[in-house]
Amino acid sequence: MPIKNPEHAFVQDLNHEAWAVHDATEHCDIIHVQSAPAITFSRFIERPIVLTLHGPHDSKLSAFYAFYPEVHYVCISGAQSKQESMPRMSTVHHGIDLTQYKLVEHKQPYLSFIGRIAPLKGTHIAIDVAQRTGIPLKIAGDVQPMYHEYFERKVKPQIDGKIVDYMGLADLQVKNELLGNSMAMLFPIQWNEPFGLVMLEAMACGTPVLAMPGGSVPEVVREGISGHICRSVMQMAKRAQGLNFNPLVIRQYVEDNFSIERMAKEYARVYEDILQGIDARRIA
Question: How confident is the model at residue 280 (pLDDT cuts 50, 70, 90)?
């Protein structure tokens, strides 16, 4: 069987980006791209280019961005923006389509965890919280090949169908059911998460988030309103045993701060600033 060559996918992506940028140049005032290689075309066109940074901080990518100071960069959190130094940056938090998420007012007695099954996501910490409290935990997420050993060693032995249950991958319907009925979603990240969209998905269902404070968490979780920011496993376990949240208030918090309409308006403001020649850093 031939070995897969990652360059093939890269070349396909670059070819598509070249075509898309060329086409947009003929019809658009601003070109908004979502991958780093696409900004290289800024050298050959006269339209302003916007790049949204979706991934974690990477010093090599930051060095690459330094070659393109004329590009307008959009960070997805203030925490992410603090790690970058490009002269033209704005921050626009993610938003979600709230019509896709069902508010559930009456919760069932279990905790939830959705995300990649990986050490940095803290799956083992979520399990620890469940075992400390005796509150069942339902886990959903992908086990990628690079984390198979972690799953086999740290997660699988704890799955007993009583306190810890693993449900596999979750589509939108499963997310709604799992998150909506949950007492709280655990988000015990062990790294500086640039955003963490699943926090919004849980809160859109009226479910509070118990999270560790890495990355964007303090920008997303409103302490005591939409969840709690916890500094340790013990504190997270204590919070899980004393939940007192109003699902309607949590849902309203997301509608007010993280709707897809709010995100679109903030991007429109970024575009207007660019067209007016305003390059100052700001958080939208």
Answer: very low
Instruction: Kindly state whether residues 105 and 229 are assigned to the same domain.
Output: yes
Is there a single domain that holds both residue 250 and residue 271? no
CATH code, 127: 3.40.50.2000
Same domain? For 43 and 83 the reply is yes
Q: Are residues 194 and 251 in the same domain?
A: yes
Q: In angstroms, rounded to a whole number, what is the distance separating the alpha carbons of residues 258 and 52? A: 17
Return the pLDDT at 278: 65
Nearest to 215 by CA among 59, 82, 79, 57: 79
Domain contains 1: no
Residue 1: per-residue pLDDT: 46
* Tokens at 275, concatenated: 């067209």
Q: Is 274 helix (H, G, I), strand (E, B) or coil?
A: helix
- pTM of the predicted structure, to 2 decimals: 0.91
Q: How many structural domains comprise the chain?
A: 2
- Cβ atoms of residues 140 and 168 within 8 Å: yes
Domain residues for 136?
A: 98-257
